[in-house]
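Annotators were shown the component list below and the corresponding predicted structure, then asked to write short factual statements about the assembly.
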Amino acid sequence: MSYFECLRAYPEGSSSASRMALKAKSLGYGGIIICNTAPGNLFRPEAAERIRGIEVAIGAEVMAKDVKSLRSRITSLRPRYHLLLIRAATEELVRTASEDPNVDVLIPSYSSRRPLGIAAARAAKLNQVAIGFDLGPFFRLSGRHRSRWLESLGRNLQLARKFDLRLLLTVGARSHLDLRTPRDIIALAEVMGFEHQEACQALSLAGDIMALNRRCWPSPGVELL
Amino acid sequence: MIFQLEAEGEIEGKDLIKEIIASQHSLFGDIGSAKNRLHLISFDGRQGILRFHHKHMDQTRATLASIHSIQGTRAALQAKGVSGTIKSATEKYLPRLCKINGDCDRRRIELKEVSGCIIRTQGLEVDLCPDDSEWTRGSDTRYLGLTSFDLCGGHEDADGTADGL
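Structure shown to annotators:
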């Protein structure tokens, strides 16, 4: 199984795309997907392609303040990038993102009390939107903040299982020091409540989505060969 | 377990084990920690040997993975391999990890997008102390992580060395 990691590179992180690729390759990843909010400003993406033995792809991440700007960002980024990741902070944004079939992965915020509702989960299932679990806060938080975050993650996981949603695991790396080996992430995910097989599939889902989106789909269910 | 440490500064063994124990305590509590007593057998500043209970391997991996910084210095621990005895662990995993001392040079990088002072180079990897600390904002790191591929042909006055520096 080939594992993929969605991360941010310089200028939105502190390591360049090639450094991330070099480190990910040494950790045993099959590929990385660079999901910056402004992918056009990425520092030397061509240097990352010179790292052999690892697939480097460019996706896009959307962070929006309101529904209108979220929709316009999705419309403008969808044709240009093969992976569209939405980080939604409010319940309204979560609902909007889950109802849009153009969205690949939705990462709900774990700060609010009820980040993913039943309606949003049902809409995500209908529109084939995967639910992302960003483990980044786990490393940064501690004490009661971390336990509250874990509680929120557990609730989202329960809901995702109930509606049989596809899961995606990422550590939200912004530096090469944030990257962990796939085996360590799977072990960490198991501590948080994931099943072993579930965690393995969640870590390779980004690669599957990329492979699917690279094919030519003129309309839903129709592929141009 | 043989592990490898990557950090932005020098880390001492006693600080490392203190952080590992604190991380284990935070994740598994008193009862979980009592079942899996961790013991740092050796550590040379870059790689080390950690003893743990063989039935708690995933817990030990999770403990090491959850370490974010040691004494305020950004660090990452990576498990290289697990073996039943110290002898076989050393034979299997340590010879491959030859100790590399990072070159400490003070050359400068002047590019349109990034500029700063080189802190260390190791193979293709280049750590750069940026002129503007805003460039590392949000990632809790002091240095920018680059590779020599990023620097190739970056400046018209560059001396044209193979590594681009």
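Statements collected:
1. Chain A touches chain B through 40 residues (CB under 8 Å).
2. The CA atoms of residues 116 and 156 of chain A lie 6 Å apart.
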